[in-house]
Amino acid sequence: MGITQILFWFLTALALGSALMVIFSKNPVHSVLWLIVTFFAISGHYILLNAQFLAIVNIIVYAGAIMVLFLFVVMLMNLNSELESQKGKWLKVAGAFSGGCLFIVIIAALKDSADMHQQVLLKSGDIGLIHNLGKALFENYVVPFELSSVLFLSAIVGTVVIGKKGD
Amino acid sequence: MTLLQIDWFFAAEKLILIAAVITGALIIAMYSTYAERKVAAVIQDRRGPNRAGPFGLLQPLADGLKLFFKEEIIPTHANKLLFVLGPSLAMLTAMMTSAVIPWGSKLELFGRTIELQIADINIGILYVFGVVSLGVYGILIGAWSSNNKFSLLGGLRGASQIISYELAMGISLIALLMVTGTLSLKEMVEQQQNGHWNIVKQPLGFLIFLVCAFAECNRTPFDLPESENELNCGYHGEYSSMKLGFYLFAEYINMFISGAIMASLYFGGYDIPFINEATLSVNTAAGLGAVALLVKTTLFIFLFMWVRWTIPRFRYDQLMRLGWKTLIPLSLLNMFITGALILWRSKSN
Fold first, then answer.
1. What is the pLDDT of residue A80?
2. Cross-chain Cβ contact A52/B123 below 8 Å
């Protein structure tokens, strides 16, 4: 086993294990912290694919900003495992069922896709580097890129409107 | 010599470099505590520590020893694991940023060329930004796990402050990146070797970055997370012994690292002013360059202290107003002007 393979299996185990811990932790703060570990493991996978820019942006945006807000809200609400309302049995069954359905749909969609049979480009693909990614975004995908920024703008306007409602 | 496809000489070289950087950072942080008290003393017309050793030079050792031997208390209702994790994370994130800073050009020893930088990654400055944004976890986790309302308030203040000032910092960095055209810190420093430091091209950007660096390091006037008169020391109120020491120490390491980053980004890094490095031998240039970087960093650390003992703490609403209503519009303006100038210059050529 080369170093890449060792790293791959380690990161995979870490990602899956910590993702499971997000669900199984009783304490919501622990769940958030395990989710941060998951993001780090996924960033590690990006680095193995030579997508350094994606890796670091994943950490800045998700682990650095969004998860801080999650933690912030969870700590402010002071959720407790004892005080948390227990969900009914039927809700759990329905949740497991719908989650399973989603899983099947994703597998069905990916099963026959051409990418599944392609060898992963380890350390040689370069689309994840900032130079190439910028070129691709601003040459081939300008319209979707700008449209998504309009989406963000509308989200910002929406939060301001909701925030100002009380005044 | 390859085993597991690793060049072991390369690994050993990096390991020594990492050990040197971390030891250096710790020693500088240790003596920053001494310097801070001396600077405060000079500003307030006092003598400062002068009992332990000549000029009180052994004071940091005495302080460290005291912290180690103090009783370690974990509050009964604290979350024990997270209570220990908090200061460890604060220390870890403070150290991690040093990996991408170029401390000197290169050494030539035993026929090998040794880069004086732990990792030259092509996303260098984004890495720094990412680690800085993680720095808040140490404060937030420590504050929450202490199970103390004052600590929690301090932690929440720290989190919202860092998120607010990160925005302005990021936008001022974008303007710098538009000028340099690279994300690698090494390349940025190399571009400034001819004496054209980035401060000349980005004065407003540097000012914004400096203010945000104060806020990210939780230094006065932005030390609201630990404001001792209203929050009773804030996020580290429940900490004692070396765990408290780690929090205090992490702040000084952060100061050192952010000083080094500002020197590298805007003040030429290891560039020696008024001297052409090409006329010196490689090893001399590297040594002198490292000294030059350390001098610049020390000046920044002094600035941090000078401001601390001059400007009183902001109120919370003043802090938020400065961040959102002054710094972010200013940094957007700076980015706009930089972009317009670059466009104009590329058109006129």
1. 60
2. yes
